[in-house]
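Hello,

Following up on my earlier ticket. Below are the two sequence lines again, exactly as submitted.
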Amino acid sequence: NAGVTQTPKFQVLKTGQSMTLQCAQDMNHNSMYWYRQDPGMGLRLIYYSASEGTTDKGEVPNGYNVSRLNKREFSLRLESAAPSQTSVYFCASSGMGPLADTQYFGPGTRLTVL
Amino acid sequence: GENVEQHPSTLSVQEGDSAVIKCTYSDSASNYFPWYKQELGKRPQLIIDIRSNVGEKKDQRIAVTLNKTAKHFSLHITETQPEDSAVYFCAASPGFQKLVFGTGTRLLVSP
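Thanks for your patience. The regenerated structure is below:
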């Protein structure tokens, strides 16, 4: 099992450019999440998907869109990148049953917007 | 919504000493409290968690305690080793499988 995978690992964008961050999990988890991590601010939830076909806003959704393509894949799109979106982005997933709230993280995407 | 505060922001100890990191939460409905360890440039990794029906949980050198009345929980690491050096995050789950994270504690263990 690869667990949670993310692509790309690094990306540099110019202000106004768009891009999509990809995330996939092979643990048959129902729920998937996108976080951003900034120095001194911990991890903040951008969007999440409790199940295939549903998405909901988290704490900091402005400037982002998401797509739950199928049960395995959850993508995050920046339509018009801004320097304030420079951050490390983590995808996570969680399963079902008594351990449904335990989240497992991907390796992250380091994004720089110039 | 839920708010999680974490202290201290940095903690320096000598190898072999104990380290304690404390978190408080605001939402009394929160019922799940994980702790993650993040090494430099790596992903957060779950090291221990506790649910609201338990007051204490231990796994070798690490333990977590929960005081629901006071709405605080703590991570205890005994016999610290240099490889324990990392950033530690606490989190609380107010439901719907969402987590709200603290701002992290950078632990430095000196040989």
